[in-house]
Design goal:
Layout (H helix, E strand, L loop, with lengths): L2 E5 L2 E3 L5 E8 L5 E9 L6 E7 L4 E3 L7 E6 L4 E6 L8 E9 L3 E4 L3 E5 L2
Parallel strand pairs: 2-11
Antiparallel strand pairs: 1-3, 3-8, 4-5, 4-9, 5-6, 7-8, 9-10, 9-11
Length: 116
């Protein structure tokens, strides 16, 4: 199965930057889509950014212009570059992958806290 391991979370000040990484193992799988979800206390889990196997990306309105999703197909790694961070970005961020158009995989989550 595909294993997803996130890293890069932590505590940052408002206006700061952070880059999340998600290392995916199981390269023999055909991963069609990868994305970053987040869940803040009291909120539903939401899609922050996603990227298809063809490189097409999309973002939640709340992060457009501030976050950038990318992937390295050689390293099998997904990234989320976060800039101009706001307190409302505070959440647990989860890496997600869909393989063979049916199989779903989730990372363990990494905490991002934006606070002074």
């Amino acid at each position: 199965q595909v294993q997803l391991v996130e890293s890069g979370g932590g505590l940052v000040q408002p206006g700061g930057s952070l880059r999340l990484s998600c290392a995916a193992s199981g390269s023999r799988f055909n991963i069609n889509f990868m994305g970053w979800y987040r869940q803040a206390p009291g909120n539903q889990r939401e899609l922050v950014a996603g990227i298809t196997s063809g490189g097409s990306s999309n973002y939640a309105d709340s992060v457009k212009g501030r976050f950038t999703i990318s992937r390295d197909n050689v390293k099998n790694t997904l990234y989320l570059q976060m800039s101009s961070l706001k307190p409302e970005d505070t959440a647990v961020y989860y890496c997600y992958a869909r393989a063979n158009n049916t199989l779903r995989y989730w990372g363990q989550g990494t905490q991002v806290t934006v606070s002074s």
